[in-house]
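Tutorial handout. Part one gives the primary structure; part two gives the three-dimensional structure as tokens.
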Amino acid sequence: MRAKMAGFPKGVGTKAAIGGVVAVTILVVGVSIGRQGFGGKAAPEAATAAETAAAAPSASAAAPPHSPAKPAELRSDQGMAVDPNALRVKRVLKIDGPFRHGDYAWDENGAPKAGRVIITVDLRAQTLSVFRDGYEIGAAVILYGATDKPSPKGAFPITQKVADYYSRTYNNAPMPYAQRLTSDGVFIHGSDVQWGRGTHGCIGVPTPFAQKLFGVTKIGDLVVITDGKMLDVSQAKVNG
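Part two.
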């Protein structure tokens, strides 16, 4: 299924993706940008499925003393629900002009140097947004799962980071700055983000953006993926 693509307006406000309740830690909220607009998927392009055993250490393996415990790996169908009140959005990026495939924005000026990082993905708007301590510091147009390999929905912790990763399932396809979200092989990674392309469930972002994202995340940071659920960010300030 292929929808028409029109460069969707880069709006000022962000709208965000979430719903539900997270058990264990109360911090899950997704805010993704309402730079809305197009949809298009087609030929798959990078990884999924049995990437797991060889690529990642066992979730049951004991962590070394004094190191943070690795978060439990979830399958694509085990995404956690989210509390929409867990994150207060304090600032969104001002993005002018059309926001098309291959576009991204990154601006850490005025944002805290430290604080919880949450990544949100809105499959319907085809956008990803990065927040540190409630401040949006990055946004990008994404590729997502083709019809036969849809991207999962829910909240997933990052469980593995590999800067120079290659798919063991799909012809050694390069997946630069890969960040694993599920035990069955869904990652965020660098891609050639063009209209009409899709993935095997992964979230593909422009490779320069993937590198920046890789630099600000850590194991355990949450990625919230929804399909158009919105959060009111009307009280958030606009950067710039």
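Part three, for discussion. The chain has a mean pLDDT of 74. The longest strand covers residues 135-141.
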